[in-house]
Design goal:
By secondary structure, the protein is α/β, with parallel strands linked by helices. Helices cover about 40% and strands about 20% of the residues. The chain has helices spanning about 25-35, 65-70, 90-115, 135-150, 200-210, 230-245, 260-265, 275-290, 310-320, 335-345, 345-350, 355-360, 370-380, 385-395; strands at about 5-10, 45-50, 50-60, 80-85, 120-125, 155, 160-170, 170-175, 180, 190-195, 215-225, 250-255, 295-300, 325, 395-400. The mean pLDDT is about 95. It binds adenosine-5'-triphosphate and magnesium ion.
């Protein structure tokens, strides 16, 4: 009997399924996260069965929206909307007849939706107690579809549609499209990190990538108000609200860097401005991270992208903090980063032209190979501790939740 009373989605967990003894923990975290992202939908049930997750929603729920929401859960490898056939208590032959007629009407649906001409069946028998083996199930389902849909032909090499038939205990599932998720690990399985979030293309992608491995994210943003505008900060909040759809709630600590930038400009060599500012950013971020119980800092730096991201600059930047600094984009080209930004939905916001604090006092010829002793000598003209403490004390916090997009 086809289950016509609800919509069913089969969710595959990818790497989560490989986690040995922790498997159950990872799957529970995944289910929790799917539940959370589906809170806007009424009457949803979620169950774990043998490494798969079955999500059931009422018939009138919007399939596209459900797929979009589940697709944003880290740890989800793929999702298939499926037809369910219930054959508990039936003998195998009657079950095969039920599944066959369901497969035929499933194929009918594909003809009317996409005008398919050819198909193949991919059958799996997950329940080894079911007495008919997979190749035979495939053959008989193929015959049932051909009989029910006279216009269709079988093409095992390049079919217009592959119809999957998955026979489990007392139930079978028929589905076609697999919507691919982002994979990765469920949120909350890998601590918390603090991302240095600018309004650019790179840092949102860096945050996404770390969160994709299970990390909660908080953010610190530096501005130079009134040199940078209120609108520039709105843009950062907008980026965070997109990220929060994947990473969960994000707290942004916004900090005015202008007092520090002014001290640097007045007291230090012009060409060192950027690297000196970056060292302050890292010091302040480390303090904020410690207060927030974040374990690591995250930046969107990529080797050699600009003067402050040469190997020498990165070493000099890193030497002011003892917390690990994650740079997930370090070996990526800008085009690869842009591809991800587009896929996750941050790109269009990132390219809006608003000023960043780094561009406020941009030196004409920044040092590209800074020497640590020289930089330290320049910093000795500043009261570093006091400046950092004042900056940390002046922070304002905004809590950002996921926004529909
Ligand atoms: P992005 O696209 O992320 O702005 P970028 O190529 O412009 O990167 P930089 O401006 O040199 O590079 O910044 C490098 C990294 O430093 C950023 O990815 C981000 O992590 C951090 N950063 C830069 N500006 C800020 C800021 N205003 N607030 C917080 N972090 C910042
Ligand atoms: Mg930037």
């Amino acid at each position: 009997m086809i289950n016509n009373s609800e919509k069913i989605y089969i969710v595959r967990c990818g790497e989560t399924a490989l986690k040995g003894q922790n498997k159950s923990f990872f799957e529970r975290m995944l289910v929790q996260r799917i539940k959370k992202l589906l809170t806007g939908f009424e009457g949803v049930t979620i169950e774990r069965v043998d490494g798969l997750i079955f999500v059931r929603t009422p018939l009138d729920s919007d399939e596209k929206e459900v797929l979009k929401s589940i697709g944003r859960v880290f740890g989800v490898e793929s999702i298939s909307p499926a037809s369910e056939i219930v054959f508990e208590g039936m003998d195998a032959e009657s079950a095969m007849a039920e599944i066959g007629s369901a497969a035929a009407s499933f194929a009918m649906g594909l003809i009317s939706d996409r005008n398919i001409k050819t198909f193949k069946i991919d059958a799996r028998r997950a329940d080894k107690m079911f007495p008919i083996e997979s190749p035979q199930i495939a053959r008989r389902m193929g015959a049932a579809v051909l009989k029910g849909c006279k216009v269709l032909k079988v093409d095992v090499h390049q079919p217009d549609a592959t119809i999957f038939v998955n026979v489990r205990r007392g139930r079978a599932y028929i589905y076609e499209t697999k919507v691919t998720g982002f994979g990765g690990l469920p949120l909350g399985t890998n601590g918390k990190g603090l991302v240095l979030l600018s309004g650019g293309i790179d840092s949102p992608v860096a945050a996404f990538m770390m969160s994709h491995r299970g990390m909660y994210i908080d953010a610190v943003h530096f501005h130079s108000f009134p040199y940078t505008s209120e609108r520039a900060y709105e843009k950062v909040k907008e980026l965070a609200s997109i990220l929060a759809c994947y990473c969960g709630r994000i707290r942004i600590h916004s900090i005015n860097l202008l007092p520090i930038q002014e001290q640097i400009v007045q007291n230090c060599p012009e060409e060192e401005t950027t690297i000196l500012v970056r060292r302050f950013m890292m010091r302040i971020a480390e303090r904020v991270a410690a207060e927030e119980e974040s374990m690591m800092l995250i930046t969107g730096e990529s080797l050699g992208q600009v003067a402050s991201q040469t190997a020498e600059s990165l070493v000099v930047t890193d030497s002011v903090v003892s917390m690990p600094v994650m740079r997930p984009l370090i070996a990526m080209d800008k085009t690869e980063i842009i591809d991800i930004a587009k896929r996750i939905g941050t790109y269009d916001i990132s390219i809006q032209p608003y000023e960043d604090c780094c561009t406020v006092f941009l030196p004409k010829h920044p040092v590209t190979k800074p020497r640590l002793e020289r930089i330290q000598a320049s910093e000795s003209r500043l009261d570093v501790q006091a400046l950092v403490a004042a900056a940390v004390a002046s922070q304002e916090i905004d809590v950002i939740y996921g926004k529909e997009f």
